[in-house]
Write a structure and sequence with these properties.
single chain; alpha+beta; Glutaredoxin; Glutathione S-transferase Yfyf (Class Pi), Chain A, domain 2; 2 domains
Length: 209
């Protein structure tokens, strides 16, 4: 099967987590963001499904994935579907749900990180809420980010020597977490403690891969 991934052209965003899973598994897929509008890609291709009256089960937003006749939205939902089919999740039900649980936790982290730049409203630019954003970011770095990374470090430590997190090979939350860690490392960090926490978590994730 050739999957079709829909996301905004020009940015990585949440679509990158799906791309990473598809790339890791060596799956065949078309990234509509890289297809020109003249060839049926780009923003018009997204809008057809987001706004089309003939779409029976429309997605709320990008990313969404076409898999045959299926149209799937929401990053964790897409990855839950792909995980078992691409060998990126355990086969047993408990393992699948555990993997999904980790992905949902990553999704919570993404939302909280995003909201440090948009603490008042996502419709406002950063410079319109800069003072509030700085206050939100300080609290996020002091309390929320260490809690998330501390949790993932504990999960990693319980699996050292036996593969990344869930078994003998990469699984999609491990791939996504390294992406999240890399993204955070590229942002301006206010202090060394933040960078050291990032470094320990990212090193652990890569070392056991």
């Amino acid at each position: 099967m050739t999957y079709v991934l829909y996301y905004w052209p020009g940015i990585q965003g949440r679509g990158e987590y799906v791309r990473l899973a598809l790339e890791e598994a060596g799956a065949k897929y078309v990234d509509i963001a890289l297809v020109s509008e003249e060839d049926g890609g780009g923003v018009p291709a997204l809008e057809r499904y987001l706004e089309g009256a003939d779409v029976t089960r429309p997605p709320f937003a990008v990313p969404f994935l076409k898999a045959g006749r299926l149209l799937l939205g929401q990053t964790p939902n897409i990855l839950l579907y792909l995980g078992g089919r691409l060998g990126l999740a355990p086969r047993d039900e408990a393992g699948k749900l555990w993997t999904h649980q980790l992905q949902l936790t990553i999704a919570d982290l993404i939302v909280e990180a995003h909201d440090t730049h948009h603490p008042i409203g996502s419709g406002l630019y950063y410079h319109e809420q800069k003072r509030e954003a700085k206050r939100r970011a300080r609290d996020f770095l002091a309390h929320r980010l260490p809690k998330f990374y501390g949790y993932f470090e504990r999960v990693l430590e319980r699996k050292l020597g036996r593969g990344p997190w869930l078994g003998p090979r990469w699984h999609w939350p491990a791939v996504d977490s390294v992406e999240r860690l890399a993204g955070e490392a590229n942002r301006d960090a206010p202090d060394d403690r933040y960078l050291q926490l990032n470094s320990r978590s990212a090193t652990a994730a890569v070392t056991i891969a």
